[in-house]
Amino acid sequence: MEFDTIAAISTPMGEGAIAIVRLSGEQAVQIADAVFKGVGNKRLVDQTSHTIHYGHIIDTKTEQVVEEVMVSLMKGPKTFTREDVVEINCHGGLVSVNRVLQLVLNHGARLAEPGEFTKRAFLNGRIDLSQAEAVMDLIRAKTDRAMNVAIGQMEGRLSKLIQGLRQEILETLAHVEVNIDYPEYDDVEEMTHQILVEKAAHVKTEIEKLIRTSQQGKILREGLSTVIVGRPNVGKSSLLNSLVHENKAIVTDIPGTTRDVIEEYVNVRGVPLRLVDTAGIRETEDIVERIGVERSRKVLKEADLILLVLNYSDELTQEDENLFKAVEGMDVIVIINKTDLPQQIDMDRVEELAKEHKVVTTSLLQEQGVDELEEAISSLFFEGEIEASDMTYVSNSRHIALLNQALQAIEEAIHGVEMGTPIDIVQIDLTRTWELLGEITGDSVHESLIDQLFSQFCLGK
Ligand code: GDP
Ligand code: ZN
């Protein structure tokens, strides 16, 4: 496929000082060559692939040196997009990087849309759809662990799993085919039935497993929406501050989300917490007062995690008891703060109210108990499995939707077999499952099914 040449500033994560202007497309080398002046008048168009060149970017109108650069030259198809790719490494600040970008745009490149390099990699067959989507997730990943999930997916972990399942369905379909071709053999029918039941059940289990990971996947991607509640003065702001300070707040560079903060991200042992309405806690001390009873109820209901703070050195009040009622049935961690002061709280009553919720005692003033709290948060969501990062999480909503549809289709197939439905009807449900799973990886459907069936299995004869 042929596309126009695109360009964008694509600075890799974790490297602040160097910025890269990246070009991809037919004209990438020519455009870069037009603005580049190498040592000894070396021309980029004369250079071999996968080489790096030192020189300057020149404003051709004014003949001015814009930037001192290293240019990487990579000719397709051994590149990320499979097209010719040129990367201009700039050492100066944002202003000169932007001028370099502007120059290549003036010389015929088009500004890339968000994710367009990745899209090209997909369109040119370099990566499959789930890998392309993983790249997008990677860009937005908020913690190391979320990033590991995205990287795992990008490396094709999900694709491999899906492909395995599709292969199983394909084999099953081959047996169905034999059955349809040789209906006169009783033992063939018997065998088909047995294989169908076994294989379909296994595929179903695996799809269900993948769906189950999706909740955690979503959390890893979007952060665990967390609300701190408690009476005035129990230590909510102190808790927020210690969470933010101990776990460096995660900076999001999605435009518009940086200031007027009502949410703050922190990384607690790999669990990204999205602390909701932190401004409310900071400014008015009272989430209800700030956003009104109705909305705060909604905020509470939508939270993934509630941190309910009580005062160790004060008696329980009706307000405390009401809070327990308001968060019933949710994931709650009860924090009893100010343990450095004399006890006034009735711990038996707290245990009663807390029921199955984890209770942690802290003295935020003396920085005690925060470790235990973090442990409680992390084990609540990873069930103590710190190594969760090598699991395959499904975190993409398109994938989740397709998996749910595939689950339905395979259930119908199983139901059909159990009800003694004609085998060619069951075949339709199986094929549908195969196709839906294929949509996750973006593999094409229909005619390839027939081709694969006959290329992989010796039927007839
Ligand atoms: P909020 O109203 O719930 O946000 O409570 P704050 O975090 O603003 O704390 C209220 C007061 O209690 C402040 O003066 C804090 O310094 C103090 N405080 C917070 N945690 C502790 C603690 O563990 N021990 C003691 N003695 N004081 C604390
Ligand atoms: Zn406060």
Automatic annotation (TrEMBL):
Annotated keywords: Cytoplasm, GTP-binding, Hydrolase, Magnesium, Metal-binding, Nucleotide-binding, Potassium, tRNA processing
Co-factor: note: Binds 1 potassium ion per subunit.
GO molecular function list: GTP binding; GTPase activity; identical protein binding; metal ion binding
This enzyme's EC code(s): 3.6.-.-
Chain sites annotated for binding GTP: 233-238, 252-258, 277-280
Pfam families cross-referenced by the UniProt entry: MMR_HSR1, MnmE_helical, TrmE_N
Binding site for (6S)-5-formyl-5,6,7,8-tetrahydrofolate: 22, 87, 126, 461
Chain ranges of the TrmE-type G domain: 223-382
Predominant localisation class: cytoplasm
Protein location: Cytoplasm
GO biological process, one term: tRNA methylation
Gene Ontology, cellular component aspect: cytosol
Family: Belongs to the TRAFAC class TrmE-Era-EngA-EngB-Septin-like GTPase superfamily. TrmE GTPase family.
HAMAP family xrefs: GTPase_MnmE (MF_00379)
Function: Exhibits a very high intrinsic GTPase hydrolysis rate. Involved in the addition of a carboxymethylaminomethyl (cmnm) group at the wobble position (U34) of certain tRNAs, forming tRNA-cmnm(5)s(2)U34.
UniProt protein name: tRNA modification GTPase MnmE
Naturally occurring in which organism (per UniProt): Falsibacillus albus
